[in-house]
Amino acid sequence: MSSSAVQASEKSLLQPTIIPRPEHTISRRDIDNDALKVLYRLHSHGYLAYLVGGGVRDVLLGRKPKDFDVATNARPSEVRKLFRNSRIIGKRFRLIQVFFRGGKIIEVSTFRRPAEDDEAEVLSDNNTFGTPAEDALRRDLTINALFYNIADFSVVDYVDGLADLKAGRIRAVGNADVRFHRDPVRVLRAVRHAARTGFSLTRDTLKAVKSHRGDLCLCPTSRVRDELMRDLKGGAAAAWLELAHDTGVLYSLLPTLEPYYAAKDSPQRAQAVKLLAQVDKSLAKGKDVEEAVVLCLLFWPALEVLAQEEEFAPGRQGRAQWSMWVREALPALAQPVAFAKRVLERACQIAGLMGFVRLAAPGQTLPKKVVTRGYYPVACDLAKFLGWDLDGMNRSGPSKSSSKRRRRRRRRKPKPRKKGENTA
Ligand code: ATP
Ligand code: MG
Is residue 309 part of a domain? Predict the structure, then answer.
């Protein structure tokens, strides 16, 4: 047997710590009803059925989970047979999506073994399946590797995750250096969960974050972009920015921000943190913030520094210059991350409208054609975050075009008639 095969079989024999129901805080009341239905059905058909991942972590932290994922020893085809309202997705890692009312989806995956232990280049589907122990060991962080067993309502812990959760520690499962090397996206996930929970990265995990942040450029750009967007819209964007700066992860993702945000007392970074804190507040109140707005806010302090090197003429000409300049400057700052074209385009449009408030002349109002643009309300949102009242310029008086019309009408007033002039 090869050494990695020996290690793998040792891992599958690993004994978990079982925390019985009276000794932990997960109550079935905290678990989504449909997720419970899935767990119960798997269990009643003789399969292992565990709640896994972020759902377990968040319930233990007393937070409301975003989603509930289930893991089982049933194979995808067996799960599919149990749930009529389901479909199989994924090629290499097949998982089942079970559909419920209101568009809710519960994902069910078969226990998986860590792919990095396999020596074969291409794995057959069977090879990817594993034991519960292997499934725990393939996960990113110990706090994300806890299982809740529906059979006896216990927590199953293969990785000392509960101790880390109680102590406020973010620790990679296994050897952080190896795990982050295998999948550098885990660097982002470690920083995200530290920022979200306010927990500290353990020494080894922090060291691995710093030494593998440079490998992020090796990951598929779409994965990095999606993870970054989750950071910015996850409700802890301000804390994320600070930690991403402290660890240097920010500059591996966006080297373009380094000249503006990296200095110890950078006022630009402080401003960006404040702007993102407002986004966090809005999201906490249940008010969504468009991705384009969040992008503009992340880059705005750097954009302002760059703008100081430009000269914008007063009035209409300056506004046109500004909006053309923004179309180049903003994508250049964002370029290292492959943000969706649609989002970047929207960001340029709304940032372009900031010319009206940034270069406003006293008493200036908005032309009607601006107010009627589809993205005008989004631009108003951005302006509000930046401390400007774009919409106020719309409300504060007649638009330019209507005042012109009035002037023209006044000019056309008939002259007073002269004495004896024929009125017929
Ligand atoms: P969120 O609350 O943001 O959804 P989450 O921890 O549930 O956080 P998901 O992206 O939904 O994150 O992933 C579900 C689970 O899958 C994680 O909790 C983790 O156990 C595992 N996981 C996700 N990405 C990785 C990865 N790159 N490497 C190893 N395990 C991962
Ligand atoms: Mg999740």
Answer: yes
Q: What is the pLDDT of residues 107-162, one digit of tens each?
A: 999 999 887 543 333 334 445 889 999 999 999 999 999 999 999 999 999 999 99
Q: What residue numbers bound the domain in which 72 lies?
A: 1-167
- Structural domain count of the chain: 2
149 and 8 in one domain? yes
Q: Is residue 412 part of a domain?
A: no
Mutate to test the pocket of ligand 1, among 57, 144, 193 (most ligand atoms within 8 A of CB): 144
Which CATH number does the domain housing residue 36 bear? 3.30.460.10
- Torsion angle in degrees (nearest 10) through CA of 263, 264, 268, 272: 120
How many angstroms is it from 65 CA to the middle of ligand 2? 8
- Which residue among 189, 191, 192, 228 is best mutated to probe the pocket of ligand 1, counting the most ligand atoms within 8 A of its Cβ? 189
Q: Is the Cβ–Cβ distance between 165 and 194 less than 8 Å? A: no
Contact at 8 Å (CB) between 135 and 111?
yes
What does the alpha-carbon distance between residue 294 and residue 351 come to, in Å, rounded to a whole number?
11
pLDDT on residue 316: 84
Q: Is the pLDDT of residue 104 over 90?
A: yes
Taking the CB of residue 242, how many other CB atoms lie within 10 A of it? 17
Among 374, 206, 350, smallest CA distance to 291 is for 350
Please state, in angstroms and rounded to a whole number, the distance separating the CA atoms of residues 188 and 364. 45
DSSP labels, 345-366: HHHHHHHHHTHHHHTPPTT---
pTM here? 0.87
Residue type, 388: W
